[in-house]
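Re: that chain you flagged

S.,

Sorry for the slow reply, it's been a week of failed gels. I finally had a moment to sit down with the sequence you sent. For the record, here it is as I used it:
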Amino acid sequence: MTPLWTIRLLFLGLCTLGGYAVSQVRPEYVSEQYLGAIIGFGFGGLMIAVDEMLKGFSLRAFSATTFGLLLGMLVAWLIDHSGLFDNSDEKSRWLMRLGLFLSFSYIGMVLAMRSNKEDFSLIIPYVRFQPQNKPDTLLLLDTSALIDGRIADLIEHKFIEGLILVPRFVLRELQQISDSADTIKRARGRRGFEILNRLQHNTKIEVRIHDGDFPEEKEVDAKLVRLARNVKARLITNDFNLAQVAEAQSVYCVNLHELGRLMKATLLPGEILDLKIVREGRDKGQGIGYLPDGTMVIVNNAHQHVGQTVPAHVQSTLQTGAGVIVFAEARLENSTTKV
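Prediction finished late last night. Pasting the structure tokens below so you have them in one place:
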């Protein structure tokens, strides 16, 4: 049982006892004891039902709705006291006032819900509220970033700093992957939990499990984008499509694959590499080697040196969709080194 339902059950019990107490203290209100307990139980159940319906209603939405309600009532009060209805009879004026306050209260709440923080500068011009203390940078991790694991290394080496947020719906998705019948998926899910555990045991950073959710959104990606926008967090992901959606909605997003590509060393024509030839190339005379970051190097005149480390002279580079391919020429006048 979650802590929230524990509080709800406690509240329901207190309401039931309160209804019974009212029947004892004020029998003129409720004559029967059991009826008072039933009324208290019904009131508590009604409040829990309202709470369940409003579970996607944030504190920001509540404050905006309250402000809109007050603003709408103020406008209705001004119109009511403008003298516009002074010539109407008492009964008609009461109905007009009721319709006026209900209408403007509803319009005020709807407009406030649709507005953003910049719209309030029209009401309070030239005023900006700034926090006294600089807030922490919030880093929102998705499932792919946890499974990838590079985020843990970046944080441990202080290349990225901030407060780590992991939504509970991301944990649920990670749990589903861990429980998959597919061996590979199950291993990926367990790795994600291992990385999360590693981050939680890092004393230099703080990791928080965020309970925010958006029940109306079915996809986890949509939930992540909305949460990142609401809490003004940086979204950390390996998902290219999620990064594109976040960018389209003006959400700051860090794609670890893109970051890794940018951090690869840039090779210029003329540089000399000591490269181990691991296999023959597709064309005649070619050998294939790899740089420490995984970049493939095609070396001409190196097919006879598979398993050896040879000096290679960089000729050119080619950018492809999968990354960079380096073309080099083996410097056979230098001696090779057996590995």
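What I noticed first: Residues 1-53 form one domain.

Talk soon,
D.
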